Each structure stands twice: as C-alpha cells, then as structure tokens.
Amino acid sequence: MQTTIRGIVLRTVKYGDSSLIVDLFTLQHGRLSFMASTMRAKRSVRSVSFWFPLSMIEFTADLRPASRLPCPSDVRSYHNYTDLPFSPVKSTLALFLSEFLCAALREEKENQTLYYYIESSLLWLDMVESPASMANFHLTFLMHLSRFLGIYPNLDAPAPYFDLQSATYCDQRPLHAHYLFGQEALRLPTLFRMDYPTMRLFRFSRSERRRILQVLNEYYRLHMPDFPELKSIEVLQEMFD
User: Fold this and answer.
1) Beta-bridge mates of residue 73
2) Same domain, yes or no: 123 and 223
3) Domain range spanning residue 131?
4) How many domains does the chain divide into?
C-alpha cells in the first residue's frame, strides 16, 4: 500500500551507476532507508538534488516487507532552502549536523517531537543572517537534542564534579576519567540555558568552543551505543576558529 512520507535526508551512498541508498529521518516512521534513482530525466522526481543531506522532502512509497529497499515516487521538496546550501559557514554546519544525526538516530523510531525540533532548527539556520549569530549553533543544537533522545543531563544541585557517565553532579571524584571538575562542571547549567535567540550573547574563545564541543561529543559517545568518531568535527572547529 502506498503511503505519503515526509522526511529529512541524513546521508546518501552511491549504489551502481544510477542509484543511491538514501537514509532519512521521517516524521511518520523514524529512521528509514530507500533506493533512489539519480538518472537525469525531465520529471523532477528523479533529480539528484532532492537527496542532498538535510533536504526536506515528501514522497510516496510502499513500506510493506520486501526483499529489496523500497523506491520512493512523486518526490517533492516541502521546503527549499534559501541560504543554507550556499553559505560556507552554514554548509559546514550542515555537513556536521548530517553526520551527527546519522550516527545519533540509527535506531530511532517514530518521534514527531524530535522531528519537529530538527526541522525548526534547520529552518532557523537557513534564515539567520549574521555569522556571529550562528557561531554557537552546533553547541546549542546538541545540548537540546539530548532532551529529545532521552539523555538530557540532570543539572540540579551543582557540585564540584559532574559525572558524564551518570549524567549528574556528585561530591566525590568518579572512579573513571569521564567527568568535569570545578568551573567546567559549575558552568553546565548556564550553558544548557542557551537557545537560538540568545546564544549570540555567549562569547567563547577558540579553546572554549573547542572544549565544549569535545565534552558534548564525549557525552554522546558515552550514552549512545557504538557512537562513531565524527570526521566533520575538525572541519567545523576550523570554521569557527
């Protein structure tokens, strides 16, 4: 039975001369994979531009169990970015977000609240104009994403140590290396109050921004099984140095 699906493209892998395996996070079914054609044709349904990472698309597909990946049809964009693909800063952020989400949402089922968070974040990034206003975008996105994935840290009752494994404060040094101490630990509640409208007010040095991203990446790797090393982190850090 054909059903209409809305999704955000996470990544594509070339398959043969004229096909792609496309991984998406969909509104209705969570993480799904499809087989898409890249053949040039008059009909836009086959246009490769639909499958760029973070593209927002709608299509129809038959999701009944089958031996082959389903093939989408009647593909159309439900939002055309105006700036994100063309801005060097935004496209670098998009590269990082697509790789991060591809790793974080591997087993994610239907979660419409999460979908709308990702969608609204991308729409905000597409519209914002000032480079200074987006320097902390990736940090803010990752901090709030943790809530939708069920791994938001417990930031009540600040103490000298913050245990990244147990995601909570403690008075004694944990018996492992994954913790924050002193000012780094005490700053967490303030950092997690950042949001898109106010994050421009948080001014960080190069080393501070690198450290925050390092800690967030470590936190996700501790709480998400088999979370991989991300190749785009280095590129992202260079962009905002």
Assistant:
1) 60
2) yes
3) 88-153+192-239
4) 2
> Which residue, 59, 79, 99, sits at the end of a domain?
79
Assigned token pair, 136: 């902390």
Alpha carbon distance 115, 134 (integer Å): 21
Residue 217 and residue 122 share a domain: yes
Spatial CA neighbour of 34 closest among 54, 16, 60: 60
Q: Among candidates 168, 239, 237, 178, which has minimal Cα distance to 208?
A: 237
184-240 per-position pLDDT tens digit: 999 999 999 999 999 999 989 889 999 999 999 999 999 998 999 898 888 887 766
What is the C-alpha radius of gyration for the chain, rounded to an integer number of angstroms? Answer: 20
Per-residue pLDDT tens over the stretch 107-164: 889 999 999 999 999 999 999 988 778 889 999 999 999 999 999 999 999 999 999 9
Residue-level length of the chain: 241
pTM: 0.90
Residue with the two structure tokens 């593209």: 55
Can you read off the two tokens belonging to residue 138?
A: 């990736």
